[in-house]
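2024-03-11 09:14:02 INFO worker-7 job=invfold-0412 stage=load source=structure_tokens
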């Protein structure tokens, strides 16, 4: 999701930015309006004519977009479409059933990491903190409400032409709601908790941001304390079943009575959601239904095996309250990587600090795992946060090297377009709003629609259901990349 620059005016002024790893003095603004601590968009160089210096422009120059970040954002959106739509055909790339990490499990952390980097660049200078805070609050509310509409249960998915949601059972949290909360916490900390200290060394860099880092550490310790310290008692849930024309509710008991468990039925993350949000407002098809205990087709969904535990049908929200609070720390990590862009002038310094920081995060991830906290996206464990944040850091460094250093950007332009309109692509494609709309136009039978027929044709051509689905998804990614390119050419960018 893209955060736009805060265009407010006020009497407050940021201190002059000094490179963290360079002894040179601060550079002045270039004629194009971009300062040297920004990464300029890739464009052919033009000869400069010797002319008299123009009078200073009192208007605030618009910062250029960070192309690496657009490409990274677009790749993440494309990856989300791939794993969501092809994950059923290739369960190995779908989300891990509970413990472990697969390709799909890097999508959400990448979004949060990118948001953090954007926050650091957008709020590099804040003329008016109150006005900036107001903008952050408004954008947070918009994201949260949009998430309720898209993922609250109003749309019923592929091959289901009905819509509508029982407000007593609307899902309260989802992807956009998680992004909204992470964005809010990181942005507010960037506005209010950064000290007004000139940065001319590593020590002054720490002095400037240590309060912000402390907040991230407190969130992490709070999460660990609740995850390991909360007592989870036995609990019940209801399952709706149909016999003939009657619908009945059966009450099922889940036996827990434990503390510090990270297994699906008895963890503190689920306990907090059941108490605060209520069972009716949680996700009703949790990923642990693909575990060996709950599916004969594991790691894919399937019928319950004989002797399946009672909790297999229980609700659980992978974007619940406690896990969302922990996921916000990924935004803070992204903010730190964005600060490196601001204070390190040269490519080598940025690449070095990003690489070292990412390596430290990955090492911490495996260290925390060795101490008994496994990788788990549904719980958003600390080890999972460290691992995915470190991988996101390596991904940013790699894309930055290709796009901004060696100028290998032409083959990635389709992802740049998608990244510049990530929100609209997420809504229409990744959230399946556009495919559901197309499926509403059919010939005689609902199954005879453009989406289903195109996928069926590709499966016939590939002589394989799985590979045909993959071909269809790749075609879908190409379609949305080109659509985003058309919007870019017309200068249309959708953001909240």
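2024-03-11 09:14:09 INFO worker-7 stage=emit residues=496
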């Amino acid at each position: 999701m893209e955060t736009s620059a805060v265009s407010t005016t006020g009497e407050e002024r940021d201190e002059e930015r000094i490179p963290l790893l360079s002894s040179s003095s601060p550079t002045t603004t270039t004629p194009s309006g971009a300062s040297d601590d920004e990464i300029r968009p890739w464009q052919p160089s033009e000869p400069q004519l010797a002319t008299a210096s123009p009078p200073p422009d009192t208007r605030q120059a618009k910062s250029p977009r960070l192309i690496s970040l657009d490409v990274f954002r677009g790749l993440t959106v494309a990856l989300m479409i791939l794993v969501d739509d092809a994950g059923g055909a290739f369960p190995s790339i779908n989300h891990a059933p509970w413990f472990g990490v697969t390709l799909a499990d890097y999508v959400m952390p990448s979004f949060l990491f990118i948001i953090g980097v954007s926050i650091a660049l957008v709020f590099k200078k804040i003329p008016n903190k109150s006005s900036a805070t107001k903008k952050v609050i408004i954008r947070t509310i918009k994201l949260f409400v949009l998430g309720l509409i898209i993922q609250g249960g109003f749309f019923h998915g592929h091959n289901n032409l009905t819509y509508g949601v029982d407000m007593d059972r609307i899902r309260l949290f989802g992807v956009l709601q998680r992004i909204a909360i992470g964005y809010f916490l990181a942005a507010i900390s960037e506005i209010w908790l950064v000290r007004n200290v000139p940065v001319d060394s590593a020590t002054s860099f720490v002095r400037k941001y240590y309060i912000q880092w402390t907040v991230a550490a407190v969130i992490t310790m709070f999460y660990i304390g609740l995850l390991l310290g909360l007592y989870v008692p036995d609990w019940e849930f209801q399952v709706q079943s149909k016999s003939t024309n009657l619908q009945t509710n059966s009450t099922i008991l889940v036996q827990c009575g434990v503390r510090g468990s990270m297994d699906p039925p008895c963890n503190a993350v689920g306990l907090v959601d059941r108490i605060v949000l209520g069972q009716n407002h949680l996700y009703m098809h949790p990923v642990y239904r693909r575990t060996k205990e709950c599916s004969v087709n594991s790691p894919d969904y399937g019928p319950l095996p004989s002797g399946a535990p009672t909790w297999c049908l229980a609700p659980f929200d992978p974007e619940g309250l406690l896990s969302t609070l922990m996921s916000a720390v990924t935004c803070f990590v992204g903010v730190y990587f964005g600060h490196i862009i601001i204070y390190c002038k040269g490519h080598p310094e940025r690449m070095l600090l990003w690489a070292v920081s990412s390596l430290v995060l990955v090492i911490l991830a495996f260290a925390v795992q060795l101490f008994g906290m496994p990788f788990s996206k549904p719980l958003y464990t600390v080890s999972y946060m460290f691992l995915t944040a470190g991988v996101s850091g390596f991904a940013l460094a790699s894309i930055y090297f290709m796009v901004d250093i060696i100028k290998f950007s032409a083959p990635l332009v389709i992802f740049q377009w998608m990244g510049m309109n990530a929100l609209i692509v997420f809504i229409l494609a990744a959230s399946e709003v556009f495919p559901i709309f197309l499926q509403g136009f059919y010939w005689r039978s609902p199954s005879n629609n453009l989406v289903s027929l195109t996928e069926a044709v590709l499966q016939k051509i590939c002589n394989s259901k799985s590979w045909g689905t993959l071909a269809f998804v790749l075609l879908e990614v190409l379609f949305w990349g080109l659509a985003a390119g058309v919007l870019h050419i017309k200068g249309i960018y959708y953001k909240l």
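2024-03-11 09:14:09 INFO worker-7 stage=report msg="DSSP finds 14 helices and six strands in the chain."
2024-03-11 09:14:10 INFO worker-7 job finished
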